[in-house]
Design brief:
single chain; about 300 residues; alpha/beta; eight-stranded parallel beta sheet; two-stranded antiparallel sheet; 9 helices; 10 strands; about 40% helix; globular
Length: about 300
């Protein structure tokens, strides 16, 4: 297997201020883990910038321009209580979305079998017209909609196992009969969405809420018994993983009990499904994960599975 890893040094210049959980140290821990000798054999590239038009497929109108206009020339600015931008945020935002676009291009053209985008800021809380929850641009949705627009893969799916529900991706896909969103997440919890009743305008949303304290057996059962059958019925042409690792038992922002072994299992299960449904076309995009050691271990398990499974 050829697994492409995309990242960029600009992600470290997105400054969220002291004590903010979505800090540059998150990516430093990921990149250090990915540099380990045991993770040889990957293809690595610097992420390009996305264009405004590529982002506009998920965020129409003046969204990108409005975000760029809000970014300060010095210091920090809060877009909401959780979402902070700084002078380096513009480049990081454009290259985080650009990583998803480049990864889709590589997998769609056969240059890589699959890809992992080690990016920040994360994206799955960003709605079509609103940044929130640490997120500026919905990178996974940008990648999925690029697969459709640029490569003709009409039926796109996003599978999300972050501890927080991806309200932004759900909102974007809600009325799109050729888009599928499925999520395991702690519930009730931030951002307040993600109940089983939320099924989408075309029955194209599958939410599997997990209770605080649930461990890997419950998580695996939800993916195996609800999400993967829904994905099979949908018959995607391309699969994006919103890969958040804050459902780990040691993460400070969640109360689930997963381990890196659970994330490796989920990765393999999604890959198996994609192999049978869409030629194995899978791109993974980093979302949450706030315990630095756990994040590094989980990313290692995830990308090793992408390469070797």
């Amino acid at each position: 297997m050829t697994t492409l890893i995309l990242s960029h040094e600009s992600y470290l210049t997105h400054d969220t201020g002291p004590y903010h959980p979505e800090s540059p140290d998150r990516l430093r821990s990921v990149l250090k883990a990915l540099e380990q000798s045991s993770l040889s054999g990957f293809v690595r590239e610097e992420a390009p910038r996305a264009t405004a038009d590529e982002i506009a497929r998920a965020h129409p109108g003046e969204y990108v321009g409005d975000i760029l206009a809000a970014i300060p020339t010095q210091g920090l600015r809060h877009l909401d209580g959780d979402t902070v931008v700084s002078p380096g945020s513009a480049e990081a935002m454009m290259r985080a979305a650009g990583a998803a676009v480049r990864a889709v291009n590589a997998v769609a053209t056969g240059t890589a079998d699959n890809a992992f985008c080690a990016v920040r800021p994360p994206g799955h809380h960003a709605e079509s017209t609103r940044p929130m929850g640490f997120c500026l641009v919905n990178n996974a949705a940008v990648g999925a909609l690029h697969a459709r627009a640029a490569h003709g893969h009409r039926r796109v799916a996003v599978i999300d196992f972050d501890v927080h529900h991806g309200n932004g991706t759900q909102e974007m896909f809600w009325d799109d009969a050729e888009a599928f969103y499925a999520s395991t997440h702690q519930y009730p919890f931030y951002p307040g969405t993600g109940s089983r009743r939320e099924r989408g305008g075309h029955n194209n949303i599958v939410n599997v809420p997990l209770a605080a304290g649930d461990r890997g057996d419950v998580f695996r059962g939800g993916l195996r018994d609800e999400i993967l059958p829904g994905l099979t019925t949908f018959k995607p042409d391309f699969v994006i993983i919103s890969a958040g690792f804050d459902a780990h038992k040691d993460d400070p922002l969640g109360q689930l009990g997963l381990t890196e072994t659970d994330f490796a299992w989920a990765t393999a299960a999604i890959m198996d499904a994609a192999r049978s449904l869409c030629g194995g076309r899978v791109v993974s995009v980093l979302e949450g994960g706030y315990n630095l050691d756990a994040l590094a271990d989980c990313v290692t398990a995830h990308v090793e599975t992408l390469k070797d499974h």
